[in-house]
Amino acid sequence: HVRPKVSYWAVGLCEAGAIFAYNFPHPPLTDRILSTLFDSSHSASALQTNPTLLLGTLLTTAGAYIRSRCYRALGQLFTFELSVRKEHHLVTSGPYSIVRHPAYTGSFLAFAGIHTCLFGPGSLLRASGILDTDVGKVIIGAAAVHGAIIAYFFISRTLAEDKVMKEKFGVEWDLWARRVPYRLIPGVF
User: Fold this and answer.
1) 35-76, pLDDT tens digit by residue?
2) Which among 31, 45, 56, 75 could disulfide-bond with 116, CB atoms 3.0 to 4.6 Å apart, if both were Cys?
3) Are the beta carbons of 101 and 183 closer than 8 angstroms?
4) Domain ranges of the chain
């Protein structure tokens, strides 16, 4: 997960730098920043706040909020690895009363939001014209493959976690699974 995060941060910092350089010109530094990020046929003036950016920001914020609620609900039971501890108990409150794996729901929302911001109209990747190049097509392809891998991981991980929790908690898990039948998306899956 480190490489994609670094890539997202790098693009975000470049976009922030372009916005700053465009709005607060201070040659020669800002000229260099803008000429590095934009060729002569593109301009930083195309970087704009728009409904797509706001939607992406909302999705990212909602995903982060859901994940923070999950961390809070799980407390010391939270791990990045699938494990059952000696003092483990089944957490069924908070976001776990809506879907069985809300942290993955939050991650997916944040992932979708970040991609909406990065690839949407008014973004650096669009405004600079890079997405219209062969490199841009590779970037789009890599993002699509990354999204598919994440979706596969989330779905397979929910199956594995459900199996482990069912084995550990038995009837208690069965009752909770009946009350909370959906793994990731209420009313859907």
Assistant:
1) 999 998 999 999 999 999 999 999 999 999 999 999 999 998
2) 56
3) yes
4) 50-79+88-179
- The confidence score (pLDDT) of residue 114 equals 95
CA distances (Å), origin 77, targets 18, 55, 102: 42, 32, 15
According to DSSP H, which parts of 24-93 are helical? 29-37, 51-74
User: Which residues lie below 8 Å from residue 177, measured CB to CB, with a gap of 6+?
Assistant: 100, 162, 166
Q: What DSSP assignment string belongs to 114-160? A: HHHHHHSTTSHHHHTSGGGSHHHHHHHHHHHHHHHHHHHHHHHHHHH
Give the C-alpha distances (Å, rounded to integers) separating 115 from 18, 97, 138.
19, 28, 15
> Are the C-beta atoms of 125 and 139 separated by less than 8 Å?
yes
| Residue-level length of the chain | 189
Rounded Cα gap, residues 77 and 179, in angstroms: 22
The distance of Cα 94 from the centroid of its chain, to the nearest Å, equals 21
pLDDT for position 125: 96
Q: Which of 27, 161, 40, 179 is nearest to 97 (CA)?
A: 179
